[in-house]
Amino acid sequence: MAEILVLVDHLDGDVKKVTLELLTKARSLGEVSAVFVGSGFDTAKDKLAEYGAATVHVADADELTAHPVAPKAELLAKLVADGDVAAVLVPGTAEGKEVAARLAIKTGSGVITDAVDVVASDQGIVAEQSVFGGSTVVHSTITRGTPVVAVRPNATQPEPAPAAAERVDVAVELSASAKLATVTERVVKSRTGRPDLTEASIVVSGGRGVNGAENFTVVEALADALGGAVGASRAAVDSGWYPHQSQVGQTGKTVSPQLYVAAGISGAIQHRAGMQTSKTIVAVNKDAEAPIFDLVDFGVIGDLFDVLPQATEEVAARKG
Amino acid sequence: MKIVVCVKQVPDTASEKALRSEDSTLDRDAVDAVMNEMDEFAVEEALQLAERTDGEVTVLLMGPDQGTETIRKALSMGAHKGIHVVDDALHGSDAVATSAVLAAALASEEGAGGAYDLIILGSEASDARTSLVPAMLAERLGLPQLTFAQKVDTDGANVTVERLTDYGHDVVTSGLPAVVSVVEKINEPRYPSFKGIMAAKKKPVSTLDLGDLGLDAAEVGAAGAWSKVEDFAVRPPRTTGELVKDEGDGGKQLVSFLASRKLV
Predict the structure, then answer these.
(1) CB–CB of A259 and B245 under 8 A?
(2) ipTM
(3) Which residues, 6+ apart, have CB-to-CB distance to B248 below 8 Å?
(4) Per-residue pLDDT, A99
(5) This prediction's pTM
(6) How far is A164 from chain B (nearest CA, A)?
(7) For B226, which residue in chain A has the nearest alpha carbon?
């Protein structure tokens, strides 16, 4: 059976959930081989095995991570050239999509981004995308080369299916052009202890109604009680109340958690484009006419500074 | 320093978008066309870098006739000249084809003639949101890729950016020329002044078609796409569920609802 390559997203061997989702999806398409770039394979191995990677191509030479994007694309292109590869799945993150971009050009292959599902059919690999803020569902195929698909995080429920995760070291002679840009410093912000925004199954977001950086503690408290991530609308980020990385919407992150809580967010199309595919949406807003209420499963018309703390307390009480 | 900034005209983000049933491409007639918002940051960054280095900014756009408006906007912000690649055969181009056309326009004598130190783009277009083109362009041109920049610095020989990451940022550096893509919030895009708008009318815009670029119609547009839309369907819009007015127990009611969905 042909190989399905899955590019592992990890930080020093700490495997991101999106990788497990890709491995789960890849199992229905062919024989699953993970591709692990950088250090930390020993830490990652058990997770990759648990979720069905039969083989793991490991490339841990320092120069692969010293330069952004291009080395990973070259490594994958080499694996595609040397093996019998039916498709390459990469995480639908900013970097994953860029790796997909370069790989597509290198291998003369079509590429699809932001897939929410990938299935095998008579026409080959079919990718499903949810576009225009989830209002339209599109099915696409690749008509040239080896399909390269960037899969959106949180689109699949990861399911274990143990396999060997047998390590196969792979060496790649990087071209000069892959080494043109160099990472000279890696700045890691202090960890909040909360799940990553795009991977979280619960997201609590604050908007204009939060009215100040210091008031975001109210949003954070509910997120922490629920075990969720914190997001912010563009208005809140533009006002400097919350970091850019947390922005949900058209020009920020797209999230599709099990539960999305919108607090003090009016629900402009800019915001809806980033959260409309969430499974359950609830909102708290003072304005009964706020467009966010058009798409909620449950809405509270009220002051978020009353409703959120009470909800936080109630969640804590129920959890005992 | 010579800077080329690549811009795209897109449907206004404030409008609802739909696909056309006949060819599964975006219905661009139904909505107002504007400069892709992220590209405004790219233009502003190009202008600021040019101002610091006594440089020149060329704006490059691929798209239908009405794309001229977007080029004029960049010129009225302060860019010096424009290149407009327009050809009926380009309709339906995917990122693969778009990057091929931009690369050809950057290289060709009729276009930028290979004379540039920096190529700057927005990190994403608000319509397709693939973020593929900057990386594809770097790959095709064999140039360093410094993308998702929240800060750009250059001393005329090298360029250094802060590349936004999920965990913070990476500092990435390379020689010139290089391909840079910027994220929003890197700067405050200026509004065109009245003087700028008047001056823009006199600035040169060259129009190129596929023949000028030595490209074959079969390589671009829907015909040259390496992926194909098989079908699409419009989802029914979400409908409002239960709305309650907070009478002092709104938080508790909210949690009861979450519990009923097994979310707590």
Answers:
(1) no
(2) 0.93
(3) A306
(4) 98
(5) 0.92
(6) 30
(7) A110
